[in-house]
Design a protein that fits this description.
This protein is of the alpha+beta class and about 375 residues long. The chain contains 15 helices and 13 strands. β7, α7 and β8 form a beta-alpha-beta unit. The longest helix is centred in the last third of the chain and has 21 residues. The structure holds magnesium ion. The site of magnesium ion has 5 residues, from β1.
Length: about 375
């Protein structure tokens, strides 16, 4: 449908032209660039499979591996069972980051000044200057050529009048796709899609919408707005606007770190409180170090707990002031994890995340009465 819509590409654009560039199976593609003998073969980047006994998950896999049913986030042991002959490689994050840095520099050079937004290590929005859709397609082709020439990697690009449309379009024809949605085709493009294509609508919202007879974007758009708002609050408004193809959010660089976190998958599932609390101490120290590296204070501590069988829970607590106290991270994390201990179920993974961050420097925002906080801030600054 996107292709059919693109027939009106000579149409003069009065709206913004947004591109979402998403690298194709980024980590595994970078691996095949340095191991050309793996081109065309199933490659899985992630935890060590240990011949099926491995812990942890798949980070990324090649399209050939996907044909075996393997996907990101799957337990590595399952991936191994699905395709034991695949090449399993550890995550070489430093390498991917440096390749990402070079790609982002290329992408930035195509965007209007200050109209670039890196979304993740392999994905970015660009607001480009294009008078016609033809211009926009030309820019997308140049981007693809330059990345292929310099990094030997392919990407998929979506072009639309806003971030929502560009994002959904980018996912239509992977790998090496280029999908253009003309401004007058947005509704036609979105209507038949399931509501889960809208960013922010996950399984839970999907189920709630299903309960009121809404499964497609068209049904969401046609649904009574007042009923959506009474059920979902502000999110109801936003959801409805997105279903109508309306997304006014700007393409802008977000330099602030949103959160820092660490997690660990135990070598063996455990319900031993000593092992769990020791892990929390280590995770809290790691997370605190990342917080200091980012030069931030936190206000919210979250924990993630995954039981055997992948049953996953999160808990969060916010404090009434900004802090950088590692002991506070430990204490709150232990309290939050406490409810999951002694449940006759073993833990597989545990994680800590600090969010609601603020860049250090405004001492007046630091609370008092908890002692050690100011000390650790001065330790960092000094
Ligand atoms: Mg990608």
């Amino acid at each position: 449908m996107a292709r059919r819509c693109a027939i009106s590409r000579r149409l003069r654009l009065r709206s913004r032209t947004i591109l979402l560039v998403d690298m194709d199976s980024f980590f595994s593609s970078v691996e095949t660039v340095r191991h050309p003998e793996l081109v065309g073969l199933p490659v899985v980047v992630g935890a060590d499979p240990k011949e099926g006994a491995g812990r942890g998950v798949v980070s990324t896999c090649s399209y050939e591996a996907r044909e075996y049913g393997i996907h990101s986030g799957m337990p590595i042991s399952k991936a191994y069972r699905l395709c034991p002959d695949a090449t399993f490689l550890p995550v070489a994050m430093a390498l991917y980051q440096s390749v990402s840095g070079r790609i982002m520099r290329i992408l930035r050079s195509f965007a209007c000044v200050d109209k670039f937004q890196r979304v993740s290590i392999d994905e970015a929005f660009l607001d480009v200057k294009a008078n016609t859709l033809e211009d926009a397609i030309g820019i997308a082709r140049e981007i693809k050529e330059e990345i292929l020439e310099k990094e030997k990697l392919t990407c998929s690009i979506g072009i639309g009048l806003n971030k929502l449309v560009a994002k959904i379009a980018s996912d239509m024809e992977k790998p090496d796709g280029l999908t253009v949605v003309a401004p007058d085709c947005v509704q036609e493009f979105l209507d038949p899609m399931p509501v889960t294509k809208i960013p922010g609508i996950g399984k839970k919202t999907e189920q709630m919408l299903k309960g009121i007879g809404v499964t497609t974007i068209h049904e969401l758009r046609e649904h009574d707005l007042r009923r959506l708002v009474s059920r979902f609050g502000k999110w109801g408004y936003r959801m409805h606007a997105l279903a109508c193809g309306i997304d006014g959010s700007a393409v802008e660089e977000d330099r602030t770190v949103k959160s820092v976190g660490r997690e660990i998958t135990f070598d063996e599932d455990t319900s031993d409180p000593d092992v769990i609390y020791d892990s929390i101490d280590a995770l809290a120290d790691g997370t605190h170090k990342a917080l200091l590296n980012a030069g931030c204070l936190f206000r919210t501590v979250s924990v993630k707990v995954r039981f055997e069988g992948f049953d996953t829970h999160t808990r969060a607590r916010s404090i009434g002031f900004m802090s950088s106290d590692p002991e506070l991270v430990k204490r709150i994390s232990k309290e939050l994890v406490g409810e999951f201990i002694g449940k006759n179920k073993k833990l597989r993974l545990i994680g800590i995340r600090l969010s609601n961050l603020r860049v250090m420097g405004a001492e007046s925002e630091i609370g008092d009465g908890m002692g050690a906080r100011q000390t650790s801030i001065y330790e960092f600054i000094g």
